[in-house]
Amino acid sequence: MIKVGDSLPAATLSEFVAVEGNGCSLGPNAFDVTKEAAGKTIALFAVPGAFTPTCSAKHLPGYVEQAEAFKAAGVDEIWCLSVNDAFVMGAWGKDQHTDGKVRMIGDGDAVFAKATGLTLDLNGKGLGLRSNRYSMLVKDGKVVQLNVEAPGQFTVSDADTILAQAKA
Question: Which of 138, 158, 140 has the alpha carbon at shortest distance from 148?
Answer without folding.
Answer: 158
